[in-house]
Specification:
The protein is mainly alpha-helical. It has helices at about 10-15, 25-35, 35-60, 65-110, 115-130, 130-165. The longest helix is centred in the middle third of the chain and has 46 residues, at about 65-110. The two termini are about 65 Å apart. The relative contact order is 0.06.
Length: about 170
């Protein structure tokens, strides 16, 4: 089957889109569409598309202008709040980095003194305690507890900072 353009095709489309098809339009146009294959198909497709457009218009719910304005105002306020808080977020991040750096610098400064302090504790405990086994056990326990204390202090400082950065908005 070969398709051809009918000169009355646009008249059929205009009648359907105008809401006149088939009751309120020219009888000769309806008779022509019944006999012309192109116009019949155009009329069927145009009716379906016109009904679909009508149903789509019914389903659309346009919000009121006041509601749109209110949402835009809330969004603008929220964006300005985030923009104003951004420098404070940077300052918190810089402060956290300084605290971690100072902690590590202090740890680096104190670490060389740890063996001397442990030797001093061993010397004092050997004079006060009767057995060398008790002295070495106490020194080992103190060394281990000092390591655990340093790790605990690092965790207590780093964990809140990590949570802050993980849960912050930016």
């Amino acid at each position: 089957m070969t398709a051809y353009d009918c000169p009355r095709e646009q008249d059929v489309v205009n009648a359907v889109l105008g809401g006149r098809w088939p009751d309120r339009c020219d009888e000769s146009l309806v008779a022509h569409a019944a006999s012309c294959v192109t116009c019949r198909e155009v009329a069927q497709v145009s009716v379906l598309l016109h009904e679909d457009v009508d149903h789509a218009r019914i389903d659309v719910i346009v919000p009121a202008a006041g509601q749109i304005w209110w949402r835009a105002a809330v969004r603008a306020r929220l964006e300005s709040t985030h923009a104003a808080a951004r420098p404070m977020t940077w300052m918190h991040a810089i402060t956290g980095a300084i605290v971690v750096g100072m902690f590590l610098a202090g740890l680096t400064a104190v670490w060389p003194m740890v063996p001397g302090v442990l030797n001093m504790i061993r010397a004092v405990s050997s004079e006060l305690l009767p057995s060398p086994e008790v002295t070495s056990a106490l020194a080992g326990g103190l060394a281990m507890s000092a390591g655990v204390g340093i790790i605990a202090a690092a965790v207590l400082i780093v964990t809140p900072l990590a949570l802050y950065f993980a849960l912050s908005d930016d």
